[in-house]
Design brief:
The chain is mainly beta. The chain is built from one helix and eight strands, in the order βαβββββββ. Strand 1, helix 1 and strand 2 form a beta-alpha-beta unit.
């Protein structure tokens, strides 16, 4: 299914802001996007390495940046749900292939 896409230009990472690594082979901080989202605090970044299809994930009440290491190499067939983003903040998704349309290579919100 098609999602509406929103692209937000990124800003430089602030000093002291964590960047978590998701690597399905176990070489990063987490093996799933959801585990990284759950552990991250608002304002932090999550870098997702290529691998097999990732499970859907939900960002609830946090302002995060989630980006693929290489655009179009991270598939999330079930999509992403973003809700309750704190006022004055943003959730940024970059280079993720969301939902079931393998041809879609966009960042977006469901």
């Amino acid at each position: 299914s098609l999602i509406s896409a929103t692209l937000v230009l990124g800003r430089p990472l602030l000093a002291g802001t964590a960047e978590w690594i998701v690597d399905p082979s176990g070489g990063g901080d987490f093996t799933t996007i959801q585990a990284a989202v759950d552990a991250a605090r608002s304002g932090e970044r999550i870098l997702v390495l290529p691998g097999s299809a990732y499970a859907p994930f939900t960002i609830d009440g946090k302002a995060l940046v989630v980006r693929a290491q290489t655009a179009g190499t991270v598939r999330v067939p079930g999509g992403a749900l973003v809700r309750a983003v704190p006022a004055g903040t943003e959730v940024e998704l970059f280079g993720l292939r969301l939902n079931d349309d393998r041809r879609q290579d966009a960042s977006g919100l469901e």
